[in-house]
Amino acid sequence: MNRSFIARNPSTLVFLAGLALFTLVITVLSEGFGIGAISTSFVKILGKTLCLCLIAIAMDLIWGYTGILSLGHFAFFGLGGYMIGMWLMYERTRQIVVNSLSEGVLPPTPEEITTGIGNQIFGVVGSSEFPLIWAFADSLVLQLAFVVLVPGLLALVFGWLAFRSRVTGVYLSILTQAMTLGLSLYLFQNASGLRGNNGLSGLQNLPGVTAPQSVVSLWFFWASALALGLGYLLVAWVVSGKFGSVIRGIRDNEARVRFLGYSVETYKLAVFTLTACISGIAGALYYPQAGIINPAEVAPIASIYLAVWVAIGGRGRLYGAVIGTAFVSLVSSWFTGGQAPDVSLGFYTIKWVDWWLVLLGLSFVLVTLYAPNGMGSLIDLLKRKHKETDT
Fold it and tell me: Is 183 strand, coil or helix?
């Protein structure tokens, strides 16, 4: 990185410094390495929120900067979670089976171990055979590679078919939504090889790790913060140069950019694939902290929520996407976690668990109508005042 990048993007340095300070404060306050002022469960919520902020950055790049409203990026997020979840579940089950069979008179054979693992994982769907999709589940290195490759390959194929056909606007949004729905329905089937509706569970238990959850949760929190920082830096670099100027031109006037000789479809495909890879990484960090992944996690509604978060934060501003997602995610956890007190009106009691989605939808409508730049506009206002003070 050169000085010119930081000079042209001081907000990036501010964001990274703020993220580092936030990570340090949470570590000091945690139960794992700090004074225990905040619980392990809250550290997990913060870690998952950082992962959601990472996919929000990807969403902002494809929607806010390129003008493509994708309603399918949570499919890539879920695929990343499934890829790392397969290794976590396989390896944890293998250790349980090996320990169980070691109590016998004779040492277990590899076939007995494999059959035992199959019974443990697939017994819930009435099978003990490993599907082909689990062929590399015993390799952490390969499954980590699949976290990026599988979502990236799906996005590359889907994007190539869509962009070469010049599908744009609302039709492309519907198409990405259909892709997500198709993937979700496929994963619901037991024949998908990913345990159907049951999904993958027990992901919070790291194989071979005896450290308590208070420590493990901090490891994932640090990893999520690091991924968010690197993701922010990468996307900020992408949108700061010529590439960023071209994709903003595509967003504002696609026909003119094509007339100038740029391959619009190639730029779109590159952004679509890159954001899918980022989403896969975010999902791979999110679901071990959640402990479970099932097909409902990649349902179409999740991708719509993602668009709402970015809209509330302010699209076209990376910090806006992060602020909006963090705010809505934490408020959602507060409302739906039963911590918000019910409001009694005498004739009716408002239970926020039931009314949260209505409140979220209303916020989206109000932001769209009266504050199209979202919460990020507050940062814009502070920046303008700071410049006026300097001059």
Answer: helix
Q: Name the burial class of residue 184, with classes exposed (0-12), middle (13-18) and buried (19+) by CB atoms within 10 angstroms of its CB.
A: buried
Report d(CA 291, CA 202) in Å as an integer: 5
Terminal Cα-to-Cα distance of the chain (whole angstroms): 29
Tokens of 305: 């929520």
Q: What is the pLDDT of residue 3?
A: 63
Would you say 374 and 316 are in contact if contact means Cβ atoms under 8 Å apart? no
Burial class (CB in 10 A: 0-12, 13-18, 19+), 312: buried
Residues with Cβ within 8 Å of residue 335, at least 6 apart in sequence:
352, 353, 356, 359
Mean pLDDT of the chain: 89
Please give the share of the chain, as a percent, with pLDDT higher than 90.
Answer: 55
Q: Does the pLDDT value for residue 257 go beyond 90? A: yes
| Beta strand extents in 299-379 (DSSP E only) | 343-344, 349-350
Contact 80/281 with Cβ under 8 angstroms? yes
The DSSP call for residue 109 is: P
Contacts of 191 (CB under 8 A, 6+ apart): none
List 293's β-bridge partners, or say none. Answer: 200
Question: What is the distance between the alpha carbons of residues 218 and 303, in angstroms, rounded to a whole number?
Answer: 27
Phi and psi for 343 in degrees, rounded to 5? -110, 120
Of 69, 56, 71, 60, nearest to 315 by C-alpha is: 60
Which run of H or E residues covers position 200?
strand 200-201
Residue that is written with structure tokens 């900020």 in the block = 236
Contact between 283 and 143 (Cβ < 8 Å):
no
**Residues 16-55: pLDDT tens digits?**
999 999 999 999 999 988 888 899 999 999 999 999 999 9
Which residues fall within 8 angstroms of residue 189, CB to CB, at 6 or more apart? Answer: 196
* Among the listed residues 279, 325, 314, 274, the one whose alpha carbon sits nearest the alpha carbon of residue 298: 279
d(CA 55, CA 75): 11
The region, left, alpha or beta by phi > 0 then psi within -120 to 50, assigned to residue 316 is left
pLDDT of residue 209: 86
